[in-house]
């Protein structure tokens, strides 16, 4: 550079060396303002220049806004004017809207889609679609489970009903198998079963046990005079009359035809005879109302009990023996004029070696 | 020509209307006229296109699509608490103001009324909408605060 040119340059306020240096310092300062962790204060020589103050303040605002955006804090209003402010504002509005959309998704609105912010929007939308699908699948599975559960409950109910019906059916069969259909009393089979158990207990504990066998006197005449239907009614009423006079522990059964049998646990022959006498009187005094008018009947009673030998468990045919003895005693009562009670005695084996069913 | 109407023509007409009305009635009454016109437009838009929408999320989504398609602006919801009756929404690229020089005051009075009419129709409650940021105040994105009237 010639001396003249040098002189001209120093005199030119725009291109002078001093001016270039000053511009360089200015640019370097604002570059530091953008790069340093802590923003430098505006140097004193520029602090009176309004444009420098505004630029410094705007860049500090921009730094702060960028920092807040980087940590997701959009609570402060974006106050920067112009293009950069507009960009920040748009970013703030977009992210706030995105936060609202995320809250809507959380509340179950899966129609939300993001149509801004590029790749992030795609990821968000995929997530919402997947969430929607997953939730739908879960709801579907839940409905399926509820349906299966409902079917199971129905199945359990129907099985319970079937079991109850089966139980009722079994109970009914049991009742039919153990009950005399005419009188509702135990039938002979049931009586034998109960009696065997009671005999076993008596044998084990050495307790007394008696059997009373009774037969309605002249029952054939009732049938002949009033008919079989009324005869059946009479048998039912005899059953009710005797049943009422017995305790719960005493078993009354229809043994066959017009013949009934009573098992008296814990009862010896003497007490059993008293019971039989009470029953005989009850029947004798009872007026049995039938369709054809009042009917009175009597019955003959035979009583037998376990002998000391039998209590010791000697006999193998105790029940049949016991009933056979009561049977003989009953026929002795019939032979003696009916409507009476007889206890078994050994001599009856000779008097009635074979029980005749010809006597009414 | 309808679909190729240029923005300048629309704005020329709108601002011409506004200036003349303002000359005759003053700014306050003009603002009120524009707000009420916006309310009427919002109600009519709702009656014609949104009346079957029941869910708020669907309402917003449908409205967003419509406003974008009609070139009115890009609607975003920043806050929405219908129980408390308070919403903050933004409209970018607003038909009425985007690109205008900074005037120092908000200009989207018609949009305020428009949003109020829509919200009133959807919720059944009267909302007061106020523009709190506007392109015309140098904010670039318009932000509206809607509050249910007590």
Descriptive account of the structure:
The complex is a heterodimer of chains A (360) and B (150). Chain A is α+β, with helices and mostly antiparallel strands. In chain A, 61% of the residues lie in helices and 10% in strands. Chain B has a single domain (2-148), classed as Muramoyl-pentapeptide Carboxypeptidase, domain 2, CATH 3.30.1380. Chain B has a four-stranded antiparallel β-sheet with strand order 1-2-4-3, covered by helices on one side. Chain B is globular.
Strand order of the largest sheet of chain A: 2-3-1-6-7
Instruction: Indicate the CATH topology of chain B.
Output: Muramoyl-pentapeptide Carboxypeptidase, domain 2
Unreliable runs of chain A, pLDDT <50, ≥5 residues? none
Could you tell me the strand content of chain A as a percent range?
5-15%
CATH architecture of chain B: 2-Layer Sandwich
Give the oligomeric state.
heterodimer
| CATH class call of the largest domain in chain A | Alpha Beta
CATH superfamily of the largest domain in chain A: Reverse transcriptase/Diguanylate cyclase domain
Explain briefly what this protein structure is.
The complex is a heterodimer of chains A (360) and B (150). Chain A is an alpha+beta fold and 360 residues long. Chain A has helices spanning 3-11, 17-35, 50-70, 82-106, 118-178, 188-205, 219-226, 228-244, 269-285, 308-311, 318-335, 348-351, and strands spanning 209-216, 251-256, 259-265, 288-290, 293-295, 299-305, 341-343.
List the helices and strands and how they pair.
The complex is a heterodimer of chains A (360) and B (150).
Chain A: H1 3-11, H2 17-35, H3 50-70, H4 82-106, H5 118-178, H6 188-205, E1 209-216, H7 219-226, H8 228-244, E2 251-256, E3 259-265, H9 269-285, E4 288-290, E5 293-295, E6 299-305, H10 308-311, H11 318-335, E7 341-343, H12 348-351
Parallel strand pairs in A: 6-7
Antiparallel strand pairs in A: 1-3, 1-6, 2-3, 4-5
Helix pairs in contact in A: 3-4, 7-8
Chain B: H1 7-50, H2 56-69, E1 74-81, E2 86-92, H3 109-123, E3 127-133, E4 142-148
Helix pairs in contact in B: 1-3
């Amino acid at each position: 550079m010639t001396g003249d040119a040098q002189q001209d340059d120093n005199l030119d306020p725009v291109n002078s060396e001093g001016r270039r240096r000053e511009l360089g310092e200015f640019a370097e300062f604002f570059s530091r303002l953008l790069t340093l962790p802590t923003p430098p204060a505006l140097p004193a020589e520029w602090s009176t220049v309004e444009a420098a103050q505004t630029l410094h303040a705007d860049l500090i605002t921009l730094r702060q806004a960028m920092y807040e955006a980087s940590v997701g804090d959009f609570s402060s209003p974006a106050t920067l004017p112009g293009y950069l402010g507009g960009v920040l504002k748009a970013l703030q509005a977009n992210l706030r809207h995105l936060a609202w959309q995320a809250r809507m998704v959380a509340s179950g609105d899966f129609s939300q889609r993001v149509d801004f912010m590029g790749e992030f929007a795609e990821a968000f939308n995929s997530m919402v679609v997947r969430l929607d699908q997953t939730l739908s699948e879960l709801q579907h599975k839940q409905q399926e489970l509820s349906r299966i559960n409902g079917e199971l409950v129905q199945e359990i109910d129907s099985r319970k009903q079937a079991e109850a019906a089966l139980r009722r059916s079994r109970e009914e069969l049991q009742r039919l198998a153990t009950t005399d259909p005419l009188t509702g009393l135990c039938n002979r089979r049931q009586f034998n079963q109960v009696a065997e158990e009671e005999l076993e207990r008596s044998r084990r504990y050495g307790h007394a046990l008696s059997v009373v066998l009774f037969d309605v006197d002249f029952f054939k005449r009732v049938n002949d005079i009033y008919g079989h239907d009324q005869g059946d009614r009479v048998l039912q009423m005899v059953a009710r009359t005797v049943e009422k006079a017995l305790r719960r522990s005493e078993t009354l059964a229809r043994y066959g035809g017009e013949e009934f049998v009573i098992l008296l646990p814990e009862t010896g022959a003497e007490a059993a005879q008293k019971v039989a006498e009470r029953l005989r009187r009850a029947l004798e005094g009872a007026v049995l109302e039938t369709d054809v008018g009042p009917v009175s009947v009597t019955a003959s009673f035979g009583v037998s009990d376990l002998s000391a030998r039998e209590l010791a468990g000697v006999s193998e045919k105790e029940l049949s023996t016991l009933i056979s003895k009561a049977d003989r005693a009953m026929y002795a009562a019939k032979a003696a004029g009916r409507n009476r009670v007889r206890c078994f005695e050994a001599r009856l084996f000779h008097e009635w070696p074979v029980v005749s069913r010809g006597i009414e | 020509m309808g679909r190729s109407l240029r923005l300048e023509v629309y704005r020329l007409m709108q601002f011409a209307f506004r200036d003349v009305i303002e000359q005759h009635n003053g700014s306050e009454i003009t603002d009120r006229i524009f707000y009420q016109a916006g309310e009427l437009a919002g109600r009519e838009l709702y009656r014609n296109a949104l009346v079957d929408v029941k869910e708020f999320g669907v309402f917003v989504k449908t409205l967003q699509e419509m406003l974008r398609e009609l070139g009115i602006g890009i609607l975003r919801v920043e806050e929405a608490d219908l129980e408390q009756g308070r919403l903050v929404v933004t409209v970018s690229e607003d038909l009425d103001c985007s690109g205008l020089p900074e005037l120092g005051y908000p200009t989207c009075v018609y949009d305020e009324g428009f949003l109020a009419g829509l919200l009133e129709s959807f919720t059944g409650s009267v909302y007061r909408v106020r523009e709190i940021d506007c392109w015309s105040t140098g904010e670039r994105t318009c932000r509206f605060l809607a509050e249910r009237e007590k």
